[in-house]
Design a protein that fits this description.
The chain is α/β, with parallel strands linked by helices and 298 residues long. The protein folds into three domains: 2-11 and 190-297, 4-hydroxy-3-methylbut-2-enyl diphosphate reductase, catalytic domain (Cobalt-precorrin-4 Transmethylase, domain 1, 3-Layer(aba) Sandwich), CATH 3.40.1010; 13-93, Rossmann fold, CATH 3.40.50.11270; 96-187, 4-hydroxy-3-methylbut-2-enyl diphosphate reductase, catalytic domain (Cobalt-precorrin-4 Transmethylase, domain 1), CATH 3.40.1010.20. Helices cover 38% and strands 19% of the residues. The chain contains nine helices and twelve strands. It has helices at residues 13-28, 42-50, 76-85, 95-109, 123-130, 164-177, 189-203, 217-227, 263-276; strands at 2-5, 32-35, 54-56, 66-69, 88-91, 113-117, 138-140, 151-158, 178-183, 207-211, 232-235, 252-257. The strands form three sheets. The chain has a four-stranded parallel β-sheet, with helices on both faces. The protein has a four-stranded parallel β-sheet with strand order 3-2-4-5, with helices on both faces. It has a four-stranded parallel β-sheet with strand order 7-6-8-9, with helices on both faces. Strand 2, helix 2 (42-50) and strand 3 (54-56) form a beta-alpha-beta unit. Helix 7 packs parallel to helix 8. The longest helix is centred in the first third of the chain and has 16 residues, at 13-28. The radius of gyration is 21 Å and the shape is flat. Bound molecules: iron/sulfur cluster. The site of iron/sulfur cluster has 14 residues, from helix 1, helix 4 and helix 7.
Amino acid sequence: MNVRIAKNSGFCFGVKRAIKIAMNAAENDKNTVTLGPIIHNPQMVQKLKNQGIISVDSLEEVKGRRVIIRSHGIEEDKKRKLLEKSAEVIDATCPYVSKTQQHGAQLYNEGYKVIIFGDENHPEVVALKSYVPNNQALVISNETELENFHFNKVGVISQTTRKLSGLQKVVEKLLEISAEVRVINTICNATSVRQEATAKLAKASELMIVIGGKNSSNTKMLARICNEHIKTFHIETSDEIRKEWFDDIKENLGITAGASTPDWIIVEVYNKILEYIGDEEKQIEKFDDIPIFKEDKC
Ligand code: SF4
C-alpha cells in the first residue's frame, strides 16, 4: 500500500521560529513563561513545560518573569501591560501575523471600514482586531453575515489560516454592497500551499489521516478539506489510531499535518500506520524519510 504525506506538512516558518525562540529562552533562563500556549499543539506545549517553559493564562501570573508572546500575537493593550509587568518580553509573533496587524491599522487610518474575515474567537483574530483603532473592525466568518450592510469605503483582511475561496466569496459580496473595496490578501502562503497539497492528496487517496491539535484552526481546516473528498480521521497522536480503519484500504492512504504539528508526532503516526497494515520493514526514523505525494506520479 502507498502511504504518502502531503507536501508542506508540519511546522510552518512562523511556528518553527516561535519554537526556536522558546527553546533558546529555556536554555538561558528557566524563569520564562508563555502567555497562552505558544502554539495550538498540546504535545509541544507539554514538551516545553518539561524544559521549564510553562504557559500562563493571565497577566497577573507573569509578574516579574520573562514572557514569550506566542506566534498568534496578542492584543495591543495586553502587550503594553506586559512590557510594564514582566522582566523581559520576547516577541515570537509570526512576522506575517504582525504584518496583518499593520494592514488593519493602516486601512483604518486611510478611512476604510475594516472587515476581518476569520473566527472572532481565535487568538490571532482577537489580537488583530485590537490593532484597528477604536474597536472599529467588523469580524465575519462568511459572506452571509454581510446581508443588510452597505459600505462606502471598505477594506478587507483575513485571518492568515483561512481558505482563499472563502475570502473570494466575501470580496464578491462586498463588491455588490460597497462603493469602493480594497482587498489585502493576508492569507499566509504556507497555509494555502498546504491546503492545496492536502486537497490533491485527498483526491488520490482512499482514506486521509490529519494530524494536529484538536484546538488548531489550520489543522481543523485541513480535516474539513479532506472530508470534502474522502473519509478522514483527525488525530493528535498515534495512540488514537485504530487498526480497523485500514481494513478496506487497498492502495492509497494519505497523511497531512497542520502547521503546528511537530515532526516527531508525524513520524510516530506514520510508523504506527505501517505497523497496522503489516509494512513494519518500511518504518522510518526521521520525518524527511516519509514518502511525499507527488501529483505527477498519480
Ligand atoms: S501559518 Fe503562516 S502566518 Fe501562521 S504562523 Fe505559520 S507562517 Fe506565520
